[in-house]
Design a protein that fits this description.
The protein has 223 residues and is α/β, with parallel strands linked by helices. The protein has one domain: P-loop containing nucleotide triphosphate hydrolases (Rossmann fold). It has 10 helices and 5 strands. It has a 5-stranded parallel β-sheet, with helices on both faces. Helix 5 packs across helix 6 (115-134) and helix 6 crosses helix 10 (207-213). The longest helix is centred in the middle third of the chain and has 20 residues, at 115-134.
Amino acid sequence: MKILIIGFQRSGTTLLRRMLHGHPEVRRMFHEEFLLKKCQSKDSLYKYLINHKISPDKDTWGEKVPFYPSVRKISVLKYCDIWNDYFGEDARILHIIRHPIDVAFSIDKMYRNQSFNTALRVYKKIMPKIVPKLLELPFVYTFKYEDLLINSEKIIPQIFTFCDLNSEVDFKKLLTKNLKDKYKKLDPTRAFAYKTKSLPYSIKGLENSIEILNKVKGPEYKI
């Protein structure tokens, strides 16, 4: 399988990538190398993979690409289309979403300088356009970051099964053994953390995004 991880910035894409990278059946999960931009044909992509000691057809491998307004001048939808076109039934796309206010707080913590307001403005502009289209694409599994934390025993085996990986792998042992300190366990208290914080800016106009995101199964998003 060829696994593509996508999601808005600070939505859990790195956690997901590390988890899959540690699975014994996954050869490699690239980190934001924008393979489809770097290698502009399937032949050049395969040569690139072979140079990295990956068998393009036999090995399970993939990449994590968060979606900004553009992904190195390729929209995330175009990126997914090419991924599906290149790999057909071997393509798998994992789309992780997170409550937008927690996304904004996380971005603000990282970058400061009114990033909370900027993050929400970009989020409100992008998500209503992209999420409904992603839900219609083949070989895409969309799930909530909060569900990953709260219902990990159920969701993680589903993710592995979707990617045609052994779903009985002990993911808790995998987290403890292979991942960095901040990922050694899944902390359910980090789900909906925004409820314990005061909002620094207005969240007016977020209702449409929340409504669209709630089309995805999992804990209900509210504001």
